[in-house]
Design a protein that fits this description.
With 340 residues, the protein is of the alpha/beta class. It has helices at residues 17-30, 46-54, 66-76, 90-98, 150-154, 183-193, 207-214, 233-239, 250-256, 271-279, 289-294, 297-308, 310-323, 328-339; strands spanning 3-8, 35-39, 58-60, 80-84, 103-106, 118-121, 138-141, 170-174, 198-203, 222-227, 242-246, 261-265, 284-288. The strands form two sheets. A seven-stranded parallel sheet has the order 3-2-1-4-5-6-7, sandwiched between helices. It has a six-stranded parallel sheet with strand order 10-9-8-11-12-13, with helices on both faces. Helix 7 links the parallel strand 9 and strand 10 (222-227). The longest helix is centred in the first third of the chain and has 14 residues, at 17-30. The N and C termini lie close together (12 Å).
């Protein structure tokens, strides 16, 4: 049986986005009879570790130097390696490639020193960019290569969502597996500032964040339920009239599900994807987190429109559903297996 190693970032500060899209690719690769082993510090985010374990995938602790990677891939007898990291030194990629083992690297715009036989940039409009490629590399770019997990695909609607008239909209809000930048309380304040009724469920990965969200003063008709990380995320999104999330890898899952997505740009490396997603008309911009912290008024105005306009919610949901077809992981897995 062929074996593929997946070296990806994960951690309280880095979040779980890299793990989530690698799991989507892993699910597709396993369907083809290929064994996988993840190389990452999954134990630092228990929920991420549970997601990998639930799929019966072996985990090795992260290694960092070029020499450690070369030694590890030999010990594990790997037939290919997938990289998804912002933190690895460029020397790691070149050293692994020099061994002759096939490599695929998932990137977001800037290669950050990554080089591989296949580079995958699954971001919106990435196909319009033409970066200089490393020698003997090919690049797969754009939303047709977005990798979506089984649990999302299982709940993808068969047709675009229709408008739903509701007296009190249901809101679901989450900001990655760790909410590393503490967006939850600030978004909750903006929601409260809309002054209109809602029934919100907000994911808070830590006790501190949960307490800060619960402490926000609500107005008449407004309700919030604070929960911990959930493996029922897709179901919660489907039930919600509005989903608010960080503008990262989860954006494409929301669009695939036909969600009305309100995006928050929580960190600088999300700015390009945030602006591009809003420009397509498939998601609404709630704002940049640093601005929300200073003054939630603009975010409150954007959220109020989404809460009170079911036609606009349906328009956004249908546009997003059409944009992400859910077959990106098949295309990426085709490229990976071709290398092997």
């Amino acid at each position: 049986m062929k074996r593929v190693g997946v070296r990806c970032d994960v951690g309280p500060g880095r979040g779980i986005g890299h793990v989530m899209r690698c799991l989507a690719l892993a699910e597709e690769v396993r369907r083809r009879g290929i064994e996988l082993v993840f190389v990452c510090d999954a134990h630092t985010v228990p929920w991420a570790a549970e997601q990998i374990a639930a799929r019966g995938i072996e985990v090795e602790p992260a290694v960092w130097t070029a020499a450690e990677h070369v030694e590890l891939l030999k010990r594990l007898q790997l037939d290919a390696v997938v990289f998804d990291s912002y933190d690895l030194d460029a020397s790691v990629y070149s050293a692994v490639r020099a061994t002759g083992i096939p490599t695929l690297a998932i990137v977001d715009g800037d290669f950050r020193g990554a080089e591989a036989d296949v580079l995958v940039d699954q971001n919106l409009a990435a196909e319009l960019d033409h970066p200089e490629l490393p020698p003997d590399s090919t690049r797969l770019a754009g939303l047709e290569h977005v990798m979506i997990r089984d649990e999302i695909l299982a709940l993808r609607p068969s047709e675009p969502p229709a408008p739903r008239q509701v007296a009190v909209p249901k809101v679901f809000a989450f900001f990655g597996g760790t909410d590393a930048f503490g967006a939850g309380p600030h978004v909750m304040r903006a929601l409260a500032a809309t002054g209109v009724p809602f029934d919100a469920t907000v994911v808070a990965p830590t006790v501190d964040l949960a307490a800060r969200i619960a402490a926000v003063n609500l107005q008449a008709g407004q309700r919030v339920d604070v929960i911990g990380p959930t493996d029922q995320l897709a179901a919660a999104v489907r039930e919600a009239d509005l989903t608010i999330s960080a503008s990262g890898t989860s954006t494409w899952e929301l669009l695939c599900l036909g969600a009305t997505a309100g995006l928050v740009c929580v960190v600088d490396n999300q700015v390009m994807g945030y602006e591009r997603a809003i420009a397509t008309g498939t998601a609404a911009g709630v704002g940049v987190l640093s601005d929300l912290k200073t003054d939630p008024a603009a975010a409150a105005a954007a959220l109020k429109r989404l809460l009170t306009d079911p036609t606009e919610r349906a328009r956004l949901a249908a546009a997003g559903w059409k944009l992400v077809d859910g077959n990106g992981r098949v295309r990426v897995a085709d490229a990976l297996t071709a290398l092997i």
